[in-house]
């Protein structure tokens, strides 16, 4: 069995993106500044927080041709009784409208898109944060939505962020969890189209990993040092996810296998619920080929061959070592030690 | 206040007719607090027992005397004056809160001892205690013996030292002179007196009764009935040719089995020879063991053994370390202590390699002290030089342990190896304590190129008291070597046994005492030295069958203030021990380890 942990780590370094990324911070600040200047004086005061995968330390860089995606939450100092949800969203929409080529009000958020390089969009969500019940509610709906789609939805975005960010108490286990989530998300980007609901959501994959991933490592009895095995951790996760697909009766009355993963915070919805039955079937088939590839790579003796197999699943950022590199790594010839006599 | 002890003794039925007696009726009168007397029935014989409590009772156990001493005949554990030796003080704990319980227990033991003696059940104890019975005889001065205790009869040299006023016996006069200078310094002289004879007896012998030493007839009987045929012939040949002058002292040294492992050694002298009545006044006489043709005085003597076999520690039933040759490379803080521990364990031959001098700032963490810093080069005291560590160690070791031989090289080991001045194959064990991983890795490779190589221990300390390690290699044909520790795929050149996390610099701390206060420096080295020496001896004795890494783990508080520990430090001592063979590197380029 080839040891490809180093290649996984190089791959992870290549795809990882988090809240400390300068581009993201800079773009977010521009929007927030614009909002502050332009927002209607009748709007109550607000504070902002960062949410989404970058805040959860599970963000990945977009693949070529796709947009960076920034998530900002606005906590307005008001109750759900004070204002209608669409009214609140309009304060933000109107303040930013015309700022870029495209500002859209979507059902859960306002999306501001920049077409320049690198392309990115900012999803801004609006919350009523000062309610008698102490909860936070998300503004949902668009101006021309039907009335039942315009409502305040119970939510706890900061708790979700914290849950994901703090998943696994051991720091090394947690790091492996984040790596595995990022591998899954990059795999998703490589294998599913952008837009629509064909692709499983990032948060869906993240919560799947919370549900089904176990840290995988060997501890050397002599040195007590852990050697993590990301390939095995990922493989076992996919196996468990595939095992969790359940037959349900679809809209056409036929049995269909679906994976259901529920958000651990309100409103506790199934994070894959928007995928159609046929999209779900495709998702399952692609997971199956991923599992097969991981098993083949694991059985492969030659690390070069193993990495070629993995590259097909994870794309060009997954490195394939040169033959000679695998034989001998370059080492420091002088190091300091702790021995004396 | 009533005498509670008297009441107690009366209430218990161990003794009858119990009464208090005045101190002056006690047989041995020193340190008498209270004394009691009563009678007991010992296997049908009514005896009187004196129970004597010292003034500091119950800090001391009670003394018990049998009255009259010989009422039960000559039995073990009843000494002169009837003192009954019912328990050794060593290992005895008395319950200070229960004085009557102590008296009760001691009387029970006395009675058991006496009953066993009367019934002849503990005769073996006579053999074990042979020398103490010899000590009870009316005897002459104690002798010193350098004689090697052999299984055959031999002639020995008898000498006298004017300064010590003592008779000394040895195999050769040279042995006596060398031995005296080893133990008493060079100012002690000896004069050769005569030759004596050493006689090893085959079976244990009952000691002579107090005050009744053997006469020559009994002595001859004891000897000739208890030696092999060949020893009998040897002895007869020696004594037959002897002619003894009237003012001569004729000496015999006798060794007698005391137990499986031990022999008693005692001596007898014949002196003041004179003609039997009615014979010529002057002339020479036969050896009394050959035939009695003179009057003479026969005197027993105790012997102080200073021969090598007696003084060197024995490993019980295991092969002795006396013949083992150990090469110690590196005589710094750890190596210095190892040298002494090897010597104390009984290793007979040490070869020390170290190119350094002891420096003044190091004396508080080295086995040597200030007296080994400088040596006088010119006799008038005008010129002093720094003393090489190996020289200081050699002098100290040979002074303290007279039967050890120490060779030394004050040159770097790599030169000695290259120039073949030190041939590793000539040793039974090599211990390397250089504290220099580069040279140690070089030596490890060198040792693994040799067709034959003794077991090698590499040992080193870690900083600030977090621990120390010893690795065995080339033992019993097994794999595992120092290189295995240095080939971690992630941390190249990092010793994976370390308790310090990789990538830290300890130069200041390691170079030691000058700049940094390291309160445990010497104790760390001693502990590492103990681990390394135990491992080495275990290999020498063939007990350790594989090549372990043994580590001791210390308190990390001081270390953690400034540095990081490795995950290995978090293992418990039990886990460290359990994983002692788990360091071996698959396909190690040096030891070529292959797991099954």
Description:
In chain A, 40% of the residues lie in helices and 17% in strands. Chain A has 341 residues and is an alpha+beta fold. In chain A, the strands form 3 sheets. In chain A, strands 1, 2, 3, 4, 5, 6 and 7 form a 7-stranded mixed β-sheet that branches. A two-stranded antiparallel ribbon of chain A has the order 8-9. The model of chain A has no long low-confidence stretch (mean pLDDT 91). With 596 residues, chain B is α/β, with parallel strands linked by helices. At the A-B interface, loops of A face helix 9 and strand 18 of B.
Which word captures the global form of chain B?
A: globular
Number-wise, the strands of chain A total 11
Radius of gyration of chain A: 23 Å
Helix- and strand-based class of chain A? Answer: alpha+beta
The main sheet of chain A comes to: 7 strands, mixed
Number of strands of chain B: 20
Number of helical regions of chain B: 17
Low-pLDDT stretches of chain A:
none
Low-confidence stretches of chain B: none
Derived structural class of chain B: alpha/beta
Strand order, sheet with most strands of chain B: 5-7-6-8-9-10-11
Keywords:
heterodimer; A: 341 residues; alpha+beta; B: 596 residues; seven-stranded mixed β-barrel; seven-stranded mixed sheet; 17 helices
Summarize the model shown.
With 341 residues, chain A is an alpha+beta fold.
What's the layout of helices and strands?
The complex is a heterodimer of chains A (341) and B (596).
Chain A: H1 5-15, H2 22-38, E1 46-51, E2 68-76, H3 85-96, E3 102-105, E4 110-114, E5 120-128, E6 136-140, E7 151-155, H4 157-165, H5 171-191, H6 202-212, E8 217-219, E9 226-228, H7 230-243, E10 246-249, E11 255-258, H8 277-299, H9 303-314, H10 323-327
Parallel strand pairs in A: 2-5
Antiparallel strand pairs in A: 1-2, 3-4, 4-5, 5-6, 6-7, 8-9, 10-11
Chain B: H1 4-11, E1 16-20, E2 34-42, E3 45-53, E4 63-67, H2 99-119, H3 123-128, H4 130-135, E5 143-145, E6 154-161, E7 166-170, H5 173-184, E8 191-200, H6 216-224, H7 229-241, E9 250-257, E10 263-275, E11 294-305, H8 308-311, E12 325-329, H9 333-345, E13 349-353, E14 374-376, E15 384-386, H10 389-400, E16 405-409, H11 413-418, E17 429-432, H12 437-449, E18 456-461, E19 467-473, H13 482-485, H14 507-511, H15 521-540, E20 549-553, H16 557-562, H17 573-578
Parallel strand pairs in B: 5-7, 5-11, 8-9, 12-13, 12-17, 13-16, 17-18
Antiparallel strand pairs in B: 1-2, 2-3, 3-4, 6-7, 6-8, 9-10, 10-11, 14-15, 18-19, 19-20
């Amino acid at each position: 069995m080839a040891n490809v942990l180093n290649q996984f780590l190089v791959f992870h370094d290549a795809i990882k993106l988090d809240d400390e990324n300068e581009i993201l911070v800079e773009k977010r600040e521009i929007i927030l500044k614009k909002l502050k200047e332009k927002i209607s004086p009748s709007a109550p005061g607000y504070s902002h927080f960062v949410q989404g995968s970058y805040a959860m330390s599970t963000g990945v860089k977009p693949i070529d041709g796709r947009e960076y995606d920034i998530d900002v939450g606005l906590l307005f100092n008001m109750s759900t009784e004070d204002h209608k949800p669409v009214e609140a969203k309009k304060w933000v929409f109107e303040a930013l409208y015309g700022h870029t080529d495209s500002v859209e009000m979507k059902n859960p958020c306002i999306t501001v898109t920049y077409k320049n390089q690198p392309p990115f969009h900012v999803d801004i969500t609006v919350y009523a944060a000062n309610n008698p019940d102490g909860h936070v509610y998300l503004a949902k709906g668009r101006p021309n939505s039907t009335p039942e789609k315009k409502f305040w939805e119970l939510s706890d975005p900061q708790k979700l962020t914290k849950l994901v960010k703090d998943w696994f108490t051991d720091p090394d286990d947690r790091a492996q969890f984040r790596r595995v989530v990022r591998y899954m998300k990059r795999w998703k980007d490589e294998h599913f189209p952008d837009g629509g609901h064909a692709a499983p959501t990032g948060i869906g994959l993240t919560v799947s990993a919370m549900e089904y991933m176990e840290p995988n490592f060997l501890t050397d009895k002599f040195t007590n040092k852990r050697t993590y095995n990301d390939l095995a951790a990922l493989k076992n996760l996919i196996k468990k996810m595939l095992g969790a697909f359940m037959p349900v009766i679809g809209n056409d009355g036929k049995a269909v296998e679906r994976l259901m993963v529920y958000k651990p915070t309100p409103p506790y919805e199934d994070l894959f619920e928007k995928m159609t039955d046929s999209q779900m079937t495709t998702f399952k088939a692609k997971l199956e080929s991923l599992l097969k590839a991981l098993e083949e790579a694991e059985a492969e003796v030659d690390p070069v061959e193993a990495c070629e197999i993995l590259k097909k699943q994870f794309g060009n950022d997954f490195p394939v070592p040169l033959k000679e590199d695998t034989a001998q790594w370059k080492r420091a010839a002088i190091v300091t030690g702790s021995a004396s006599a | 206040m009533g005498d509670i002890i008297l009441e107690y003794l009366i209430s218990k039925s161990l003794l009858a007719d119990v009464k208090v007696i005045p101190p002056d009726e006690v047989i041995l009168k020193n340190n008498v607090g209270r004394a009691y007397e009563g009678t007991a029935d010992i296997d049908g014989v009514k005896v009187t027992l004196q129970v004597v409590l010292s003034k500091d009772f119950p800090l001391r156990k009670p003394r018990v005397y049998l009255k009259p001493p010989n009422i039960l005949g000559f039995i073990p554990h009843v000494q002169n004056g009837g003192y009954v030796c019912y328990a050794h003080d060593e290992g005895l704990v008395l319950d200070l809160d229960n004085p009557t319980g102590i008296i009760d227990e001691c009387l029970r033991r006395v009675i058991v001892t006496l009953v066993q003696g009367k019934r002849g059940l503990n005769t073996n104890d006579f053999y074990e205690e042979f020398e103490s019975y010899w000590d009870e005889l009316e005897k002459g001065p104690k002798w010193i013996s350098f004689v090697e205790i052999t299984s055959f009869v031999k002639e020995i040299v008898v000498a006298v030292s004017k300064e010590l006023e003592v008779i000394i016996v040895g195999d050769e006069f040279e042995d006596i002179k060398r031995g005296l200078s080893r133990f008493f310094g060079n100012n002690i002289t000896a004069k050769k007196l005569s030759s004596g004879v050493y006689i090893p007896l085959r079976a244990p012998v009952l000691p002579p009764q107090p005050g009744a030493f053997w006469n020559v007839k009994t002595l001859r009987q004891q000897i000739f009935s208890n030696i092999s045929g060949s020893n009998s012939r040897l002895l007869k040949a020696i004594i037959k040719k002897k002619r003894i002058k009237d003012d001569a002292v004729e000496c015999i040294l006798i060794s007698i089995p005391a137990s499986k492992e031990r022999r008693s050694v005692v001596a007898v002298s014949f002196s003041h020879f004179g003609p039997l009545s009615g014979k010529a006044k002057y002339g020479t006489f036969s050896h009394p063991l050959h035939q009695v043709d003179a009057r003479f005085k026969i005197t027993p003597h105790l012997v102080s053994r200073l021969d090598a076999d007696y003084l060197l520690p024995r490993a019980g039933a295991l092969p002795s370390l006396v013949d083992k040759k150990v090469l110690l490379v590196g005589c710094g803080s750890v190596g210095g202590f190892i040298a002494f521990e090897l010597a104390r364990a009984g290793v007979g031959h040490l070869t020390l390699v170290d190119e350094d001098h002891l420096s003044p700032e190091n004396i508080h963490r080295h086995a040597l002290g200030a007296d080994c810093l400088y040596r006088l080069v010119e006799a008038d005291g005008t010129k002093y030089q720094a003393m090489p560590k190996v020289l200081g160690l050699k002098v100290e070791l040979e002074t303290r342990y007279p039967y050890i031989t120490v060779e030394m090289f004050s040159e770097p080991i790599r030169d000695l190896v290259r120039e073949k001045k030190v041939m590793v194959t000539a040793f039974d064990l090599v211990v390397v304590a250089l504290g220099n991983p580069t040279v140690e890795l070089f030596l490890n490779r060198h040792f693994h190129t040799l067709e034959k190589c003794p077991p090698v221990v590499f040992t080193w300390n870690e900083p600030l008291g977090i621990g120390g390690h010893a690795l065995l290699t080339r033992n019993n044909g097994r794999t595992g070597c120092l290189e295995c520790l240095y080939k971690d795929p992630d941390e190249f050149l990092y010793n994976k046994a370390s308790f310090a996390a990789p990538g830290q610099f300890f130069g200041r701390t390691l170079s030691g005492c000058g700049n940094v206060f390291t309160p445990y420096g010497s104790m760390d080295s001693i502990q590492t030295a103990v681990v390394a020496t135990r491992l080495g001896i275990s290999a020498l004795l063939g007990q350790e069958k594989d090549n372990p890494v043994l580590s001791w783990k210390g308190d990390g508080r001081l270390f953690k203030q400034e540095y990081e520990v490795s995950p290995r430090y978090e293992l418990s001592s039990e886990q460290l021990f359990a994983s002692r063979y788990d360091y071996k590197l698959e396909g190690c380029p040096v030891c070529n380890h292959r797991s099954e």
